[in-house]
Amino acid sequence: VQAGTANYNVSFLGASNSVGGQTTFLNQGKLILGNEATDSITFTGGVIATAPSRREVSGTVSVSGAGGIDFSREGTGTYFMHNATLGGTGTGQGTGAIKLGYAELASNVSLTLGTGTASGLTTGALMGSLSDTSSVTIDIDGDVTVQVIRADAVTISKGDNITFTNGVLANTLDISGVTDINTDSTTGVTFGGRTLVLSDNTDTGTGLTVGSGAYDIAFFGSGSRIRGGAVTFNNTGSLTFGAETFDSITFGNSVDASGVSGVNLEGTLTVQGGRTNEVYTTVNNRQRLQSYD
């Protein structure tokens, strides 16, 4: 299916829709896919919707085979009006990549990106709210690049090399399911900008949760802060804090990094409560134990 070029709107509403072949929307008005969380539409050959000036999504948008989802036009946005999933469910799920530009979540919306089969994910800003129950779950069978994300809850349930380029702002951040899917001996989560995990402004509730696995974690940027209860880094790869002398991160509670393969520190690491296990700094290209209390 291919929609012609012109400034008109296209809507697919209802509980179940299916479109065969690859679908390309060239209309320059709005594209509306569903208007309830229970709606669904399947594009069996993938869907490209970079021409519409606005995309509104509710429910499930699925693809099959090698199909992907491309909503990535710069200067336009995708708006998730109700709970939504991109990637599909059931057999024959699409293995193509998911691409988003700017995306915004309405109040209390839960967004799931991928269902464990999409080969990659790239997004611009993903913007929810800290003051409601908006959430974003990433479930990708490959690499992930997110420009910046804001939501009450952010969950990584599957991925390989995951990069948050310009920042994370959330009350809770849950990292799990990170594995070397591409079998290239590199896997991990990189926070490239300021990371704020606020735990509803407490130092006792749930904040950062790190699941087990052989992957690296790196925090870069200045002014990062992790609040909530004690943080245990259960990954067995490396743990890096900072890439420049002006980088900084503060934990509001205790940190246990005794199980990682090595800790790299550049800049300032501050732990404000409890016990800190094995904090290292690099001296003459070697790891030196700086403190243990």
Describe this structure in words.
With 293 residues, this protein is mostly beta strands. The chain has no helices and 32 strands. Strands 10-12-14-16-15-13 form a 6-stranded parallel β-barrel. The radius of gyration is 20 Å and the shape is elongated. The termini are far apart.
Please outline what is shown here.
This protein is mainly β and 293 residues long. 0% of the residues lie in helices and 54% in strands.
Number of strands: 32
The count of helical stretches stands at 0
| Helix/sheet category | mainly beta
Mean pLDDT: 90
Please list the strands of the largest sheet in the order they lie side by side: 10-12-14-16-15-13
Strand content: over 45%
Instruction: Report Rg.
Output: 20 Å
Roughly what percent helix? Answer: under 10%
N-to-C CA distance: 64 Å
- Largest sheet: number of strands, sense, barrel closure: 6 strands, parallel, barrel
